[in-house]
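Predict structure. Chain length: 284.
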Amino acid sequence: MEPRKITVKHYLNLRAKPQFHGKEKFYPLYIQIIVTGKKAQIKSRINEHLKIYRSDIERITHNDLELKNLFLEGYFSETWLKLIQKQKLFPLWHLLNDEINVIIRIIKYHDPFHNKDFSLSNFSVEYQKHSTEITHILDESIKEWYRDELKNLFLKTIDQDENKELFRLTNYFIHFINWNNSFSSFYETTFEILPSELKMLENMLSNELRVSIKAYLAYHTKVNILKRFFEKRELGRISILSYLDWETDIREFLRSEFEKIFGEQKALEYILSLDDILTKKIKQ
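Prediction complete.
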């Protein structure tokens, strides 16, 4: 019987083509995973979380731009990796440990010791899927959906004299709004400036989209609370609200919070709407 042990550790992929800093070789940081005799090697993703720690990286590298960029790209030398682990350099050592904890949580979520179909063969995709920021997914998904329905309204009202105002509004929203901004920012700003116009458009949207917008805006008011509650604000922690967090904790936490505000039925409707968006995007 295989021991019920999950082993996760970082290492440098010495088989990859090295980058050089002077004469020192730097290699991409990888992770070795061993569970019930099964093994996998995947690329570390801590460099994706280093951007908010640029000043700390500059301090560690003594403002060496080339060295800083190597770290931000996920490349380390054997000397540096040993130094990070020995001196517990902030934030690198902390992020390394948090990444290990995240991976262990993902593995445990799949119940590897009782699930006969458990496999590590595609774990890199599984890791990416479960560690994706859900706020970004929700925002981009609803923005895309909203713009698609606006375009349909625009096309329907081009030659309709009785809907000139609606045509004018859809034309403005499609062509003159900066859609590089988040949907939440767009909605909040537009609601302050053009509340009646926004309401007119909203009444023409599908019921499913209207519910999703309300659900997302309700979610958005809770983001900071969620990050504090799940300790995502702690320095040295991976700060995203991930799909794994959604599946294991956030969904039920939000449902409870929404019930206090909207009642049981509306809370369930909002949670199901958000869950549907995330499930479609994550598992597509």
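Summary: The chain has a mean pLDDT of 90.
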